[in-house]
Amino acid sequence: MAKYFYNRDGEVLPLQDNYKGQACFILAGGPSLKDNDLSKLKRAGFVTIGINNSAKVFRPDLWVSVDDPANFMISIWRDPKIMKFCMLGKRGKILWDNNRWCESKYTVKDCPNIVYYQDNEYFKPTDEFLTEETINWGNHTNRCECGAMRDDKKIKTCSVCGKNMFGCRSVLWLR
Question: 174: Cβ–Cβ under 8 A, 6 or more apart, which residues?
């Protein structure tokens, strides 16, 4: 079994099957989110997962982000009811206090209910995706889907496979 998740002390956190058989509703942060009646999502019976700043509109059970932690509301980070998933390498990042409009006194590791994961930046769709011990969030800006690297961002077509698949990162990686 792959070890994906870690607690604040770096110990493996076994989350496999925590929500087995349960329904899940994913809230993305698009502009239409605020135009929907989300009151039914507060009922018991399923899990809600928020992505990025969707938690500004609806407080989810679980929350995921991959960008700089300072990009998100301090109230998300400080809320112990929300299980937050964050890259291990970002645990020391200082949070932004959007209420006072300045850096806060908190870092990610000071916040409650954080689940850490180790990320990687090389999406291998056929070989290792979902079997690695790290969580992928797409390719680095200079890496192609085939694994080739480019030296110049002006190069749009990969010299190895001929595709234009450089970059391509997402908090919700769907293809």
Answer: none
Segment 111-125 mean pLDDT: 82
Compute the half-sphere exposure of residue 135: CA atoms within 13 Å on the CB side of its CA. Answer: 20
Query: CB-based contacts of 145: which residues, under 8 Å, 6+ apart?
Result: 123, 125, 139, 158, 161, 163, 165, 168
Q: Which residue has the higher pLDDT, 118 or 95?
A: 95
Can you state the percent helix, strand and coil of the chain, rounding each to 5?
Answer: 15, 25, 60
CA distance 6 to 115: 6
The continuous run of DSSP H or E covering 135 comes out as strand 135-136
Sequence ranges of the domains in the chain: 5-13+20-117, 118-175
**Residue owning tokens 């300045």:** 102
Compute the distance between CA of residue 28 and CA of residue 171 in angstroms, rounded to an integer.
10
Percent of the chain with pLDDT over 90: 38
The helix/strand/coil state of 100 is coil
